[in-house]
Every structure is written in C-alpha cells, then in structure tokens.
C-alpha cells in the first residue's frame, strides 16, 4: 500500500524515455503566442495583468539594480506556479516534487546572487559572516556558523518546496483512497471524506501558489542582500 502511495512521485517514462522534460515544457503551451498586437483577447489580457502583478510583487523589495533580474525571477515564478497547479490535475506528474529538480533550480540562482555580491561589494557581502561587535573568542565559531547557514540556503529552498508539495499530494491520495473504500460500506462517512477532499484540494491549490511565490521571494531577498 505504501509503495502505491509513493508511485506518483516517480518520474514517468515511455519505452524507457523519461517524460519529465515534456511535463516541464508543457506549461509553456499555456502562455500566449507572440502577436503583432499587444492585446488579442481576454485571456491574454488576464495573463498580462497577472504577469504585471507578479513582477510588481517580486520587484518591491529590490532596488533599481535588482530590477535587472525581473525577467529571470518573473519567468521562474510563472514556471513554478504553472507546474505546481498542473500537478494537481488527475493523472499528471509534478516535477517540483523531485528534490533534485528543485535543487537544480535553487543552487545556481542562489550562487548567482552570491557571486553578484562578491563582485560588486565584496566587503559588505563578507561582513554578513561576522556581526559587528562580536567578542574575539567567538569570531571563529560565528564565522563557521554563518558560513554553514549561508550554504544551507539553497538546500532549504529545495527541501521546503519538495516537502510541502509532497505532503499535500500524499494527503490528497490518502483521503481519496478512503473516500472510495468507504463508499460501499459507509456512504455517509464517504460523503464527509469527499467534502474534506474538496476542501483539501482548495488548500493545495493555495499551497501550490504560495510555495512558488515563497521560493522566488526568498531568492529576491538573497539578491537584495548582495546588491
């Protein structure tokens, strides 16, 4: 039984070919295609307004130097948002439940923000490793602690996203399995679990959106520290 619960997190394949790349590129099909006109229909209007809102929210904590990252951060936000939401559909696969993929997104972007700070303001970036007024005896220990916490940032980004989505998918599968199993024996209880399943699905939609936002927002805050 436990194996079947976790089968949904295994990467699907067809004739030995992994289909994770197809599931990652599928969200691009939902974006509007280039056109000579700025606004073609209501769908593109809604999409452009959502992109504008996301960009404003992500660029608020950044100064003008950080606005160069607007395209990268906004694209990442839309990518994660679409993948997380599409993964809630039946018979689909969510690539962001794979820790390897989340780390592959988090580590290069975190490293880019760190290298940006070391290049533009090395003294200010290194000063984060040692708070002002630290006693001399505590300097080596604090440097090691701050360096460890700095190196744990990309791991925390990937694990947070993976854990939240994995837990939500497992809860949905457990409740849906209980709903089907109880339908023939206890219909009243089955209807109650069905109501819980609907509420849980709504909650997971919110979690999918919030986790995509938190992932990119933390990257923007790391960027702000280094610019």
TrEMBL record:
Location of this chain's protein in the cell: Mitochondrion inner membrane
Pfam families for this protein: ATP-synt_A
GO cellular component: mitochondrial inner membrane; proton-transporting ATP synthase complex
Record-linked SUPFAM superfamilies: F1F0 ATP synthase subunit A
UniProt xrefs under PROSITE patterns: ATPASE_A (PS00449)
Catalytic activity: H(+)(in) = H(+)(out)
GO molecular function: proton-transporting ATP synthase activity, rotational mechanism
Main localization of the protein described in the UniProt heading: mitochondrion
Transmembrane segments: 12-32, 69-93, 195-223
InterPro entries: ATP_synth_F0_asu, ATP_synth_F0_asu_AS, ATP_synth_F0_asu_bact/mt, F0_ATP_A_sf
Protein's membrane topology: Multi-pass membrane protein
Keywords: ATP synthesis, CF(0), Hydrogen ion transport, Ion transport, Membrane, Mitochondrion, Mitochondrion inner membrane, Transmembrane, Transmembrane helix, Transport
Quaternary organization: Component of the ATP synthase complex composed at least of ATP5F1A/subunit alpha, ATP5F1B/subunit beta, ATP5MC1/subunit c (homooctomer), MT-ATP6/subunit a, MT-ATP8/subunit 8, ATP5ME/subunit e, ATP5MF/subunit f, ATP5MG/subunit g, ATP5MK/subunit k, ATP5MJ/subunit j, ATP5F1C/subunit gamma, ATP5F1D/subunit delta, ATP5F1E/subunit epsilon, ATP5PF/subunit F6, ATP5PB/subunit b, ATP5PD/subunit d, ATP5PO/subunit OSCP.
Family as reported in the entry's similarity comment: Belongs to the ATPase A chain family.
Name recorded for this polypeptide: ATP synthase subunit a
Organism: Sylvia atricapilla (blackcap)
